[in-house]
Amino acid sequence: MDNKDDRYETTDVVICGCGPTGAMLSGYLSRMSVKHVVLEKEGGITTDPRGIALDEDGIRLLQGIGIYKSVYSEIGTCMQLFKFIGGTQKDLHRDAFLEMDYATTEGGTGHVGFICHKQPILEQHLRATMASDFCQLRSQCTVMEISQDLQWTYCRYRDQDGQVHALRSRFFVGADGKTGFTRKNYLEPLGIRMEPAHNAFYDETWVALNWQIDLPTQKSHPDFALWSLGYSPQDVYDLFFPANFRFICNPLRPAVCGRFGLPSDRLWRFEFVVRPGEDPDEMAASEKTMEIISPYITHKGKGFGLPQDVQYPEDCISVLRSRPFRFAARDCNRWSHGRVILCGDAAHVFPPFGGQGIASGFRDAASLAWRLSFLTRRPPHEQANPPHRHESVLEGWYRERKQQLSASLASTIENGRFVTEANPLRIFLRTCYLFVMNLVPRWRRELRLGRRKEGLIRYRYEEAQDGDQHHHGPLAMPFMPELNGGLCLPQVYCKPVVAVGADRARGGEREREGARVFFTDDVIFDVRKTGLFQLLVCLENISELDDARETLSSVNDVVVDAGGTEDEICFDEATYLIQDDRDVSKLQCDKDLNSAATDGSMRDLLAPVLPPPVYQLASAEEFAGSPLCEGRPTPQGYDPHYLGKALGRGLQYVIVRPDRFIFAACRNSDELRTAVAAVVGYLRG
Ligand SMILES: Cc1cc2nc3c(=O)[nH]c(=O)nc-3n(C[C@H](O)[C@H](O)[C@H](O)COP(=O)(O)OP(=O)(O)OC[C@H]3O[C@@H](n4cnc5c(N)ncnc54)[C@H](O)[C@@H]3O)c2cc1C
After folding, report:
1. Strand partners, 84
2. Ligand 1: does its nearest atom lie under 6 Å from the Cβ of 20?
3. Do 204-327 and 4-200+329-454 fall under one CATH topology?
4. Where in the sequence is the signal peptide annotated (predicted)?
5. Which of 571, 542, 548, 522 minimizes the C-alpha distance to 676?
């Protein structure tokens, strides 16, 4: 091993592949100060927009690496409704038999349900987050050999000039896509296999088309029939390429279509199934695709009182992509072997109906990054005892991820079944069922919530697998089910509570700041904080603040007693969130806080320093009036108490993992002591 030292350049993590998953992992590793090298075989970002839909978890994870501002201004736009339209009539304006409303903010993340985006632009923004002292992106570098021993992984890659380089790292992550090198060439011979994830889906071939649409004008198309009826070019576009995403549940040829990217891009996706016996390449040729799509972009003349049918001018349509692709629902039996790990499409692939491909890779990345962060914090000689600790950590990681994957797959299957159902009896029964569901407001609301009706995921605790002689950690999965751990922490909006009197004495800066609204993730995981795990203190009202603060100081010693450090969990960084709807700063600050400040009890806590440690819930209206809402729909259906309700009464002290999952939610100092010791125990192995 030692003689390898000279021949290998050394880093902590190597990521093979810089698609959305690799870039997201790199972004989080940079935030966590983990040194890594990203090897990408292509020279630039692929220009082919494959993925177009990203769910609210995905948006939240983009927010987590600091690019929320670009989400609606540069990356995409809210997807609004998913409309499921039935029958064999080729009319995009038919009434939907089912609508899911993804424009609302009911999912518990504070975001809309889905955005539609342009994958290359999304990837550009992701790459911008990688730039740091901790990351080196090496483009045109193709991994061609992987090996490992107990402490290191080794890889060789070829650069653009054909030179071969050797790289050694503590962990090697294959984020190299569904046909990637890591699985096929290194892990499959070691027994890792892509297996069907669900028997509801057989592999199917579809054609995916991307069109870029120009607007016809009276000058460019003087004979176009709708000008005489007063239509503007934009009206024409809206008529033929309507907003909202459509699932065309036509038993003869299922399809999906809708806009993507920014509205100004005028991009349109149409995907349709290739029937048995049809040749996929032939079906993707322009003659065939026009034959299939043109009925959808042709309107009967009689609807406009015109003698002839109206079709969108073909010369205003540019084809950016038209290609068959095969989809399947598959995932690997194991996602790691020793120190070599798979994530994103390299570990699992989805049918396209739920927009879960990119978001799943993002979830893999965010939940892996913090584990790699603590696994690489200590030098190899310390980590060698116990030598297989990383294996149980990684197994715990992918077993959690597999639970989430099943949930994502369930919604994908539900959408897929609507689209591909061809049996007339089942279609009839479905129509009856949906008719009844729509009559009852609560059921109707559930239908409109779509995949969000299940709420945020809660992991089920699984013991380490029997016979796993490598399992040494105190927890197989890093959360405490007996202390309410395992739930994905909801995100709400909040605003700082300011000690008005103290602040005014210093120029009123914090009072002005008090008008600002934040996402709770951004204050809990403020980039300036050092602790890997964070502490959130949820209080019913401000009068509980002193007691809570005392509880924290009484437990503070546990971190050190358990052998931990402030890099792992730091009580001084705790975020206090007051669940009171009333404006605490206006109603009570002058009175209560300033009088408390005179006896010194809350002075430090509420002193006008950055970042303010005490927050209270902000309303939908306050969010709507804040810069965070610019460009996105104002929150509809937002419940500021979502977080409090999800936690349940009395669970005041919440230890949150960096991937936004609750490690433990505690009622009192005893529970908190137990939980903090468990955090340190887990992180220290
Ligand atoms: C038609 C279509 C529609 C889709 N629609 C959606 C959608 O609406 N929503 C959604 O979420 N997803 C969608 N997807 C899926 C989505 O595009 C993928 O899930 C996503 O790109 C996976 O990201 P990844 O980073 O895991 O892998 P990839 O994007 O495949 O990236 C892998 C990277 O690894 C690099 N690489 C490979 N081998 C090597 C090597 N040996 N050395 C160095 N680098 C290497 C590749 O060049 C590539 O850049 C769609 C896919 C298709 C084809």
Report:
1. 98, 247
2. yes
3. no
4. none
5. 571
pLDDT tens digits along 223-268: 999 999 999 999 999 999 999 999 999 999 999 999 999 999 999 9
CATH code that applies to domain 204-327? 3.30.9
Q: Which atom of ligand 1 is nearest to the CA of 323?
A: 1
- pLDDT, tens digit (0-9, with 9 covering 90-100), for 134-159: 999 999 999 999 999 999 999 999 99
Q: What separation in Å is there between the alpha carbon of 84 and the centre of ligand 1?
A: 27
Distances (CA, A) of 595 to 24, 233, 592, 616: 47, 64, 5, 19
Which H/E stretch holds residue 407? helix 389-420
* Cα dist from 661 to 49, 130, 433, whole Å: 31, 23, 36
Ligand 1 site-directed mutation target among 21, 257, 451, most atoms within 8 Å of CB:
21
- The full set of domain ranges for the chain reads 4-200+329-454, 204-327, 481-684
Distance between CA 35 and CA 422 in Å, rounded? 52
Alpha carbon nearest to ligand 1 atom 52, residue: 50
pTM of the model as a whole:
0.93
Distance in Å, CA 460 to ligand 1 centroid: 29
Residue with CA closest to ligand 1 atom 19: 357
CATH topology for the 481-684 domain: Glutaredoxin (3.40.30)
- Compute the distance from residue 363 Cα to the ligand 1 centre, in Å: 15
